[in-house]
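Hey team,

Sharing the F-box domain-containing protein run so nobody has to redo it. Sequence (237 residues) first:
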Amino acid sequence: MCHLLRLPPEILVYIFELLDDLDDALRLARCCRRVYRTFNPSNTRLRIFRSIIRNADHHALEPDLFLLVGLNERLALYDESPVPRGLSYRKEFFQQHLAVRNLSAAAIWEVVCRWHAMRLLFDFYCDTSIQTSYSLARWQASEERWEGEDPLPPPVRCTCDVFQELNATERQRSYQRFYKALTAHWAMVEILWVARVAAYYSPDLRDEAHARIWDLFTNITRSLQEKIDIVKVVDFV
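Structure output:
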């Protein structure tokens, strides 16, 4: 630590930018006042967070997700008035809002907020009470209980045994996998929504667009672990 404190601020910022987890950056920033003063200016934090998001594999879909969610919100403004039906207008509308690929400051802060907010959902996922009900094999479950659609038991705020056995690094990796699976499915749902509301000049173009979306859903380049993570997380949510 003493060697770290002797480094100039520019080198400290560079070290921050080499990280690939937002939580690691926050922990490093809190290690002492000098490091925190280097990290604290909003423009410096923005630069650091942008670099971390680009480095992290679990944030790979953030640019797409930000644009797609924003597009959904903008199109929702037309709820009170009819959406223009002209094909050229709707085509330009989608092209305009999906053309920007760089993460803006608003996108960076949205990612940071989402990263911390989803931690609450992950805590529910790891809760002993919820895991006991959620992971219960079907042949052990009471059909009468599920037919009654009774709510799940309340969380007991105690982490299940499987996660308690993990060390800090493994727990953080578990959350990264959870977050990546959740955002991957979220982005695909948004893409499917765009395909449904977009304007097509012909049925063939529509079919081609939906075929590309199917390829994204199946995604043969995605590892088996990632596919299983998505199935488990989506089923839980």
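Residues 57-236 form one domain.

Ping me if you want the raw files.
A.
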